[in-house]
């Protein structure tokens, strides 16, 4: 009977079971080294998919052995801790090859290095070159449309996706069918197999319970317990590809880019279009004969083949920076700066004369500069960063020019208070907007002008976005009041609050992250008085006026609201609002006896249209 000894790679890729099913390995004695089993077990214990795939292949071989198609034996002993420690140097591979030699068996591997070493040792080798099959669409692609930026799948949860342009991105439900753990694990297996076959695919990171795969433009994060509380797959891809000409300030900024090597920060909130702008900068510079490299983890920028993209070398961006300092590119794009070590690497490379473009999360342009404070010397910051670009909703909202001077700080008069100051100037107007300096032991970031308030249109848009998102969880009317540029007060019915807030606050946290706005959720107020005065002076308690099934409503249109006036006696009551015979919504009357509906909402449009058509607007007691 023919004997074969497969190594770990041949088991994982499923080629042994394929050859048994095809009849090529029928009536073969398959000898599996315990070292292979040990390695697969270790990978599975770390939560890595390849370990589970390999163990599943061994289970199939056991079934084939019981059916009499093959003879399956396990040989050798498990590797010792010392041998496992030396596995990266090839100790386990050497054990497996030696067992094939001792048994006089054919050594089967899908690892080209293993095959070459075995041939050099005089072992009979079969090298199974991985099959190249026509790549079929992944199952996850059924959730995508042309304008889908990301898909979010979790076991026993309805699939969600972010769709639309950068300016109008919305999170929507894409299917009523909730995927199971088994279905998501099958999709994860398909994704990992594709990463082996697709020349544009690779596993970017693999940890216990977490794997990040890059497939062409798609970054796929796979999370499993115990790292996450359920199986989850998140797929993100860019939906916009722009050039610098598509942005305002492009003329001035292009001149600034090619004038000399600079230190540039691209900042903005998550999903604002920072990476898209970084790609546009890279392609523009490459088109003007600059050598461009990138430092990314994961590597997901979509760039021309001539621009090399580097990941952490041996798990460290410090090592990557050491290589790049030898390569000496004109510009390096660092996507993205998060940890202190990232800011230090960015600074070291910039001070070494390399042009740097860094991507950093920030809610305001000034916040990007403040991320350097405390991480490097204050006086060095202008040498490291001379330009800050703030991106929001896919467009350039602000460009800062960072300069260094010695002067008396703004607002001080004594000449002996002069000190080194970092000036943050608006690039378009040239006017200073911030000064950064030391005062005693403190570092002061002093605004020189009041921060620009949001326009009425922007405020209305924010209110509409908040109302839309909260209304997904509240069955009754949602009232929104902006309390600041990035904060809002939301009132909903008392019984809707648990749904809006969610378990441990997860729902409202998700809404806040999505919109970038701090939201305070409160119930509608209920009048402290049990009895209210009617226009005629008659006193009625609520039990009496609840008998009035239909309550006429007077409407009033203001710049910000359509106001439905019912009278103070209905304060705190919940009514169904009806136009003609059409039910519109359910709302709770405020303390002043009115219901305020944002003028920008679709409900306000319906009410005004009904009035123009001569239909009566009234409330119906619930």
Tell me what the structure shows:
The protein is an alpha/beta fold. It folds into 5 domains: 3-127, 3-Layer(aba) Sandwich (Rossmann fold), CATH 3.40.50.1010; 139-236, 2-Layer Sandwich (Beta-Lactamase), CATH 3.30.450; 244-447, Rossmann fold (3-Layer(aba) Sandwich); 456-523, GMP Synthetase, Chain A, domain 3 (2-Layer Sandwich); 531-621, no CATH class. Strands 15-14-16-17-13-18-19-20-21-22 form a 10-stranded mixed sheet, with helices on both faces. Strands 8-7-6-12-11-10-9 form a 7-stranded antiparallel sheet, covered by helices on one side. A hairpin with a 2-residue loop joins β21 and β22 (442-447). α3 (34-45) packs across α4 (49-66) and α11 runs parallel beside α12. Mean pLDDT is 82; it is low at 526-548.
User: Radius of gyration in whole Å, from Cα?
Assistant: 32 Å
CATH class of the largest domain: Alpha Beta
Low-confidence stretches: 526-548
- What count of structural domains? 5
End-to-end CA span: 83 Å
- Oligomerization status of the protein chains: single chain
Q: What do the pLDDT scores average to?
A: 82
CATH-assigned homologous superfamily of the largest domain: P-loop containing nucleotide triphosphate hydrolases
Which strand order spans the largest sheet, edge to edge or round the barrel? 15-14-16-17-13-18-19-20-21-22
Structural class, from secondary structure content?
Answer: alpha/beta
Report the β-strand fraction as a percent range. 25-35%
């Amino acid at each position: 009977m023919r004997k074969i000894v497969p190594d770990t790679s041949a088991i994982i890729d499923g080629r042994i079971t394929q050859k048994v099913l095809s009849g090529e390995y029928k009536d073969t004695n398959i000898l599996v080294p315990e070292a292979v089993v040990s390695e697969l077990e270790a990978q599975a214990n770390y939560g890595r998919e390849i370990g589970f795939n390999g163990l599943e292949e061994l289970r199939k071989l056991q079934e084939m052995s019981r059916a009499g198609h093959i003879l399956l034996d396990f040989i050798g002993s498990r590797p010792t801790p010392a041998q496992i420690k030396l596995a990266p140097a090839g100790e386990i591979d050497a054990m497996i090859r030696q067992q094939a030699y001792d048994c006089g068996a054919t050594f089967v591997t899908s690892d080209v290095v293993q095959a070459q070493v075995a041939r050099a040792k005089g072992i009979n080798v079969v090298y199974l070159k991985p099959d190249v099959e026509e790549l079929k669409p992944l199952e996850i692609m059924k959730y995508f449309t042309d304008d889908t930026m990301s898909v979010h799948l979790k076991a026993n949860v309805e699939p969600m996706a972010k769709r639309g342009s950068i300016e109008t991105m919305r999170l929507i439900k894409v299917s009523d069918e909730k995927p199971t753990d088994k279905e998501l694990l099958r999709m994860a297996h398909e994704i990992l197999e594709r990463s082996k076959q697709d020349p544009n695919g690779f596993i970017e990171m693999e940890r216990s319970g977490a794997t990040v795969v890059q497939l062409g433009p798609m970054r796929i994060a796979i999370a499993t317990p115990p790292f996450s509380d359920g199986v989850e797959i998140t797929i993100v891809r860019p939906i916009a590809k722009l050039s610098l000409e598509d942005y305002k300030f492009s003329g001035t900024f292009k001149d600034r880019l090619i004038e000399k090597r600079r230190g540039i920060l691209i900042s903005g909130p998550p999903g604002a279009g920072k990476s898209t702008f970084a790609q546009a900068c890279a392609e523009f510079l490459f088109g003007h004969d600059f050598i461009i490299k990138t430092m990314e983890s994961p590597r997901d920028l979509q760039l021309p083949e001539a621009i090399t993209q580097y990941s952490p070398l041996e798990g460290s961006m410090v090592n990557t920076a050491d290589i790049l300092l030898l390569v000496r590119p004109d510009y390096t794009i660092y996507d993205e700066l998060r940890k202190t070590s990232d800011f230090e690497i960015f600074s070291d490379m910039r001070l070494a004369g390399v042009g740097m473009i860094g991507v950093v999360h920030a809610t305001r342009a000034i916040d990007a500069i403040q991320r350097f404070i405390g991480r490097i010397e204050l006086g060095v910051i202008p040498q490291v960063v001379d330009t800050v670009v703030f991106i929001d909703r896919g467009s350039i909202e602000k460009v800062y020019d960072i300069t260094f001077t010695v002067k008396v700080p703004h607002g001080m008069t004594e000449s002996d208070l002069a000190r080194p100051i970092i000036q943050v100037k608006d690039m378009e107007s040239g006017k200073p907007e911030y000064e950064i300096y030391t005062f005693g032991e403190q570092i002061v970031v002093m605004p020189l002008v009041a921060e620009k308030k949001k326009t009425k249109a922007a405020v209305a848009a924010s209110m509409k976005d908040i109302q839309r998102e909260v209304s997904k969880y509240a069955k009754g009317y949602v009232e929104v009041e902006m309390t600041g540029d990035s904060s809002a007060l939301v009132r909903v019915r008392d019984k809707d609050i648990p749904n809006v807030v969610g378990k441990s606050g997860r729902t409202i946290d998700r809404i806040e992250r999505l919109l970038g706005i701090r939201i305070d959720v409160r119930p509608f107020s209920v009048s402290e008085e049990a009895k209210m005065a009617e226009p005629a002076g008659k006193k009625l308690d609520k039990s009496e006026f609840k008998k009035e099934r239909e309550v006429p409503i007077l409407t009033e249109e203001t710049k910000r609201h359509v106001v439905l006036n019912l009278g103070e006696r209905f304060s705190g009551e919940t009514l169904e609002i009806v136009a003609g015979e059409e039910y519109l919504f359910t709302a709770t009357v405020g303390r002043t006896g009115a219901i305020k509906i944002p003028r920008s909402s679709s409900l306000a449009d319906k009410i005004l249209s009904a009035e123009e058509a001569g239909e009566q607007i009234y409330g119906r007691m619930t």
